[in-house]
């Protein structure tokens, strides 16, 4: 049978060897997250194009989601040739719109994701 006893870590060793390096690792991780977010923001600011949305059924229609310079406009005519067309039944649209109302279509925008 293996000896499962181990020498307990001292407070000094714990703070020096565990807590202090973890603090630095978290800062480094946060800096990587900032770099990733900055790239995602730049990608969205540079995005240019149109997506055609077709909602089929009662109350449906066709809309064009046009992006340029970090802004999106919704029009009845495309600004650019559509890069894709998304077809949805009215029932699916109603469900997805209800879900987007709760979480935001492009993710939480004004919510703090810190716990």
Give a short summary of the structure.
The chain is an alpha+beta fold. Helices cover 43% and strands 23% of the residues. The longest helix is centred in the first third of the chain and has 36 residues, at 11-46.
Can you tell me about this structure?
This protein is α+β, with helices and mostly antiparallel strands and 115 residues long. It folds into two domains: 11-46; 47-103. 43% of the residues lie in helices and 23% in strands. The chain is built from two helices and four strands. It has a four-stranded mixed β-sheet. 1% of the residues are buried.
Summed over residues and divided by their number, the pLDDT gives a mean of: 89
- For the largest beta sheet, what order do the strands appear in spatially? 3-2-1-4
Low-confidence stretches: 110-115
Oligomer: single chain
Number of separate strands: 4
As a percent range, the share of strand residues is 15-25%
Using the CA coordinates, give the radius of gyration: 25 Å
What is the helical fraction, as a range of percent?
A: 40-55%
User: How many domain modules?
Assistant: 2
SSE order: HEEEEH
Structural class: alpha+beta
Q: Largest sheet, described in full?
A: 4 strands, mixed
Put simply, the count of helices is 2
Question: What is the molecular shape?
Answer: elongated
In whole angstroms, the N-to-C terminal distance is 43 Å
């Amino acid at each position: 049978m293996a000896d499962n006893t181990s020498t307990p870590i001292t407070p000094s060793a714990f703070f020096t060897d565990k807590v202090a390096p973890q603090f630095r690792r978290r800062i480094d991780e946060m800096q990587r997250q900032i770099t990733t977010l900055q790239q995602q923001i730049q990608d969205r600011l540079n995005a240019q194009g149109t997506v055609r949305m077709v909602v089929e059924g009662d109350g449906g229609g066709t809309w064009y989601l046009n992006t340029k310079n970090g802004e999106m406009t919704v029009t009845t005519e495309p600004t650019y040739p559509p890069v894709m067309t998304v077809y949805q039944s009215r029932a699916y649209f109603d469900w997805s719109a209800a879900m987007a109302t709760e979480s935001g279509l492009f993710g939480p925008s004004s919510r703090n994701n810190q716990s």
